[in-house]
């Protein structure tokens, strides 16, 4: 079958590989399902192809009354397979297969998205004031596309994470990893108030010393985050091939002032350490920035100064923006971007845009770009209906690996089609760092299966979880950010072409919210302007919309 697929054209070969993956899924899924007398099961079947990910494949997600999991099969340079099952037995939550394991420390006030992939068996429990998570198996490289997940085993690993609530305001933690290199990081967190948190952590990571201290304070008019991290250049929380998370190091400070609803001032100084990977050496960088945003007489004004140093290469950047809306029907805006490296020539780009709202379902966009003596005009827009959502627009992006002028203009397409029932088709284009436009195409549907229960009980129809968290991710001008990646509790979600996201939960409770900046599908980098640290799942009919605001950063050429 693989030989037959490889002899066809690109699109036919992709479709052939997707079909083969789905066949393997249908064979593999029943092997993972518990044999208990479940009342009902929900299956979500997905498949697709993407040149952005160089992936073709599919997945099945399943959920029963006391378990949930997924199976994924696809091609990422070769046939890949992954599976996961989670179930609860009394006070223990058991997990089997390929799991995304968070590795967060209370001192991670600047970046709490650290995690790694493991393949094995895990157990989690919580008794009174003590919570425990243990895992035994291997680390793994994760392979993911919007329509399937898979993994590849690496080094053997065993871990034990412990947390103990010593008092209402003090929490102790201990993270321990036994693998080819050892990690033990212990510490304390003190939270005297909900808006004030201080923490201290120390130990070794991958046999290298580590010490960190942090402070985070949040009031209505000011946000302050400060920290110091002492870490050796070879420090890693755990040695894995991917994902390769950068670490904050040395002194770091972020201050956001909001003296009134119309002014936001931001200043920050941050140092980063990129651990060594394969044959590459460790990288260290520093980023300083000052940002200001104002709203005056209906005008939205913004400006920023940036200075970065990475391994001796320095870059200085400037951004200016102005925008205004008129009666909810017109939006006018202009942006100026200038970058000046210490090596190479400077670059300046001026962008003007006009958005016309024809109706609640239809808007049109005109874009004028002037860069390096050349001017171009582009058109786009959005259309929204119950069965079809489509967005077409041109964006001016900075592509750091492009040839010639790093500012490129590309057509960006987002399509969502639901022709009947639960069946839906999603398509989108994205711009790679070299300026090439890549596509992602996927489809999916839900399947339901009821089981009769022995005895006098009758089988009941399955229902989706009745509690929901929903929201929208935008930039500072209120424009949707597509492809933003969020973690809500233990689940990861992506925003659609309108910047919206939602996730269903089984109970009404509070979940931790993280903005995974390094995993955005949209071209970046981004930084968080405002986002709640927790969200509450409520009934669908009354679920409020959570608002998250991010800012796109412009990188200066190296």
Describe what this molecule looks like in 3D.
Helix content is 5%, strand content 63%. By secondary structure, it is mainly beta. Among the domains are: 90-248, Porin; 465-558, Immunoglobulin-like, CATH 2.60.40. The chain has a 26-stranded antiparallel beta barrel. Strands 28, 31, 33, 35 and 36 form a five-stranded mixed β-sheet that branches. A hairpin with a 4-residue loop joins strand 1 and strand 2.
Protein traits:
558 residues, mainly beta, Porin, Immunoglobulin-like, 26-stranded antiparallel beta barrel, 2 helices, 5% helix
Summarize the structure.
With 558 residues, this protein is mostly beta strands.
Shape by Cα distribution: globular
DSSP E strands, number: 36
Q: Which architecture of the domain at 90-248 would the CATH scheme give at its second level?
A: Beta Barrel
The end-to-end distance, rounded to whole angstroms, is 46 Å
Classify the beta-strand content into a percent band.
Answer: over 45%
Radius of gyration: 25 Å
Question: In which range does the helix fraction lie?
Answer: under 10%
Oligomer: single chain
Largest sheet: 26 strands, antiparallel, barrel
* CATH level-four homologous superfamily name of the domain at 90-248: Porin
Poorly predicted spans? 398-407, 450-463
Q: What are the SSEs and their pairings?
A:
Layout lengths: L1 H5 L3 H23 L7 E11 L4 E9 L3 E9 L3 E11 L2 E11 L12 E13 L2 E16 L2 E18 L4 E9 L4 E11 L2 E10 L2 E11 L3 E10 L15 E2 L1 E11 L2 E12 L8 E14 L2 E12 L2 E14 L3 E12 L5 E13 L2 E10 L2 E11 L3 E11 L8 E14 L2 E9 L5 E14 L16 E8 L10 E4 L2 E4 L5 E6 L4 E6 L10 E5 L3 E3 L1 E2 L5 E8 L6
């Amino acid at each position: 079958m693989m030989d037959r697929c490889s002899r066809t054209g690109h699109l036919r070969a992709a479709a052939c590989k997707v079909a083969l993956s789905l066949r393997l899924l249908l064979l593999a899924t029943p092997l993972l399902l518990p044999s208990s007398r479940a009342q009902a099961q929900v299956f979500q079947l997905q498949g697709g192809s993407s040149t952005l990910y160089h992936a073709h494949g599919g997945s099945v997600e399943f959920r029963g009354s006391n378990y949930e999991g997924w199976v994924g099969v696809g091609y990422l340079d070769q046939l890949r397979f992954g599976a996961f099952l989670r179930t609860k037995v009394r006070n223990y939550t058991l997990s089997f297969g390929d799991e995304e394991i968070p590795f967060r420390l209370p001192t991670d006030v600047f970046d709490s998205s650290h995690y790694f992939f493991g393949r094995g068996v895990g157990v989690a429990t919580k008794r009174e004031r003590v919570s425990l998570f243990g895992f035994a198996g291997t680390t793994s490289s994760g392979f993911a596309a919007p329509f399937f997940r898979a993994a590849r085993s690496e080094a053997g690993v065993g871990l034990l994470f412990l947390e103990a609530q010593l008092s209402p305001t003090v929490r102790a933690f201990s993270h321990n990893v036994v693998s080819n290199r050892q990690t033990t990081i212990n510490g304390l967190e003190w939270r005297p108030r909900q808006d004030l948190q201080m923490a201290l952590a120390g130990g070794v990571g991958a046999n290298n010393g580590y010490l960190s201290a942090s402070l985070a304070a949040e009031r209505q008019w000011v946000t302050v985050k400060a920290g110091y991290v002492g870490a050796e250049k070879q420090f890693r929380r755990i040695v894995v091939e991917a994902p390769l998370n950068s670490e904050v190091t040395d002194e770091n400070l972020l201050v956001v002032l909001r003296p009134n609803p119309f002014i936001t001032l931001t200043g920050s100084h941050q140092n980063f350490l990129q651990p060594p990977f394969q044959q590459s050496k460790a990288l260290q960088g520093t980023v300083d920035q000052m940002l200001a945003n104002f709203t005056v007489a209906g005008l939205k004004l913004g400006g920023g100064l940036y200075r970065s140093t990475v391994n001796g290469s320095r870059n200085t950047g400037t951004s200016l923006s102005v925008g205004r809306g008129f009666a909810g029907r017109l939006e006018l805006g202009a942006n100026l971007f200038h970058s000046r490296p210490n090596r190479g020539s400077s670059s300046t780009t001026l962008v003007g845009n006009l958005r016309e709202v024809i109706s609640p379902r239809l808007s049109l966009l005109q874009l004028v770009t002037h860069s390096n003596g050349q001017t171009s005009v582009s058109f786009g827009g959005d259309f929204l209906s119950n069965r079809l959502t489509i967005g077409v627009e041109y964006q001016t992006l900075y592509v750091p690996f492009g040839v010639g002028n790093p500012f490129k203009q590309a057509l960006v397409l987002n399509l969502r089609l639901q022709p009947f029932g639960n069946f839906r088709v999603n398509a989108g284009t994205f711009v790679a760092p070299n300026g090439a436009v890549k596509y992602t195409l996927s489809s999916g549907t839900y399947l339901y299966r009821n089981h009769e229960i022995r005895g006098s009980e009758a089988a009941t129809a399955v229902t989706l979880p009745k509690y929901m968290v929903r929201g929208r991710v935008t930039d500072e001008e209120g424009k949707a950010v597509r492809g933003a990646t969020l973690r809500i509790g233990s689940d990861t979600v992506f925003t659609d072409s309108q910047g919206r996201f939602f996730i269903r939960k089984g109970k009404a409770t509070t979940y931790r919210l993280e903005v995974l900046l390094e995993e955005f599908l949209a071209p970046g980098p981004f930084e968080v302007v405002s986002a709640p640290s927790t969200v509450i799942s409520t009934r669908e009919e009354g679920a409020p919309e959570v608002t998250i605001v991010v800012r796109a950063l412009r990188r200066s050429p190296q």
